Amino acid sequence: MKKISKYPDVSVIVVNHDGKHLLEECFSSLSKLDYPRKKLQMIMVDNCSADGSSRFIKKKFPQAIVLENRVNNYCRANNLGIERSGGDYVAVLNNDTRVDRYWLKGLTNIAAKDDRIGAVGSKILFSDEKIQSAGHEEFPYYYYGDKGLLEEDMGQYDDIQEVSSISNCSALYKRKALDDIGLFDEDFNMYMEDVDCAFRLKKNNWKIFYAPASKVYHKLHGSALSPKDRVFYIERNRLLFIAKYFPENLKANFSGHGEISRLDPDLFNKLLLSVYNKLAKHHGNDKASRIFFNLNDEVNKTYNYGRHVLQVEKDNNLKTELAQLRKLDEEARARDNNIKALRDTLAEKDSLLKELSIKLPISEDTIRKLHEEVRARDNHIK
Predict the structure, then answer these.
(1) Are 139 and 163 in contact (CB under 8 A)?
(2) Nearest to residue 13, comparing CAs of 172, 119, 186, 213?
(3) Integer Cα distance of 274 and 280 in angstroms
(4) The predicted structure's pLDDT at residue 4
(5) What SS3 state is found at 236?
(6) Are 179 and 152 in contact (CB under 8 A)?
(7) What is the dihedral of CA 317, 323, 324, 327, to 10 degrees?
(8) Each residue of 226-283: pLDDT tens digit?
(9) Counting beta carbons within 10 angstroms of the beta carbon of residue 161, is it exposed (0 to 12), middle (13 to 18) or buried (19 or more)?
(10) Burial of 233 (C-beta count, 10 Å sphere; 0-12/13-18/19+)
């Protein structure tokens, strides 16, 4: 085995889109790493930000390299960073993270143990220190999820182990491995690009490891995608992955868990076009046409099911809105009754005040007469 430096050169790539409010914490934590400064290269690749992110980094962290990506594509941005980087290793890191002081050592120490380790993933924690990811695990229909998601960190994932895939929220790649398999597939844009990369690494006999000593804290809101767009990317990229490697399995796995049926018609059509283009790109137009023809029935079923689900949801939403309106009406009536009761009470008080205003002069007159009688008795006694 070739001897590897205790502190190999590492390039850390942070992709950013309108995340200026996140960058200071991220880059400050990188600047405090227990790692030689001359061995560390920091690169921010900006995806069409309009919030002054690039200017902020250039001023606040002048040691960092800032690159501009002309399209908002996460994979393309990482590839630009990798192409510009000079390290023996490349680390990709989300902009909404804060790394532990020993984050990078935890990754490089594992990567140095074996020449065939091509990638190493961190223990990713939420801000409340619950686990987000201890590597990926595979689910039915070619979905992938984070191992240990939302579990309390009780040391149950503190073993160094080989895994099938790791999250690009925080991952270290050996440059030789990337030179061997190629960079991130830009067709994915975001989501499952890490799974795709891991698949190619394993296919070329590279190992992927999980390093629990490398800790990173993730806020999980940097991308700012709407729930609808997030569902689109997850479902589209799952199908792109199948189309790329297992095209014969598309029909059996098309509907997945059913979330695809909730897509708006325009996004659904956009998804279909992306899948066809991916098939044609990797398998040719003829095969893509044959697969799509066989897929037609499943597409129609999914689309019809989506219409059914949406109609049921609309009906349920209407019922919910009517129930809320009834509740508001009841609350309004109750308020009206309370107001009426208050008005009655005020009327009673006004009546009492009027009686008192009448009685008060009589009482004063009586008191005056008593005083006169007392003075008369005093004079008589005198």
Answers:
(1) no
(2) 172
(3) 10
(4) 46
(5) helix
(6) no
(7) 180
(8) 888 999 999 999 999 999 999 999 999 999 998 998 888 899 999 999 999 999 999 9
(9) exposed
(10) buried
Cα→Cα distances 87→13, 38, 161, 229, Å: 11, 11, 25, 34
SS3 13: strand
d(Cα 64, Cα 71) in Å, to the nearest integer? Answer: 21
Cβ atoms of 224 and 315 within 8 Å: the answer is: no
Let me know if 124 is exposed, middle or buried by CB neighbors in 10 A (0-12, 13-18, 19+).
buried
Spell out the residues 6+ positions from residue 374 whose beta carbon is closer than 8 angstroms to its own: none
DSSP-derived secondary structure letter, 246: -
3-state secondary structure (DSSP) of residue 258: coil
Q: Tokens for 127?
A: 């801000």
Give the chain's radius of gyration (CA, Å): 35
The one-letter code for the residue type at 80 is: L
Q: Is 303 helix (H, G, I), strand (E, B) or coil?
A: helix
pLDDT in tens, 144-169: 999 999 999 999 999 999 999 999 99
Euclidean distance between CA atoms 52 and 55, whole angstroms: 5
CA distance 24 to 333: 53
Query: Which residues, 6+ apart, have CB-to-CB distance to 170 below 8 Å?
Result: 91, 92, 93, 94, 97, 99, 103, 121, 122, 124, 214, 216, 218
Q: Tokens 């129930």 correspond to what residue?
A: 323
Q: DSSP state, 112?
A: T
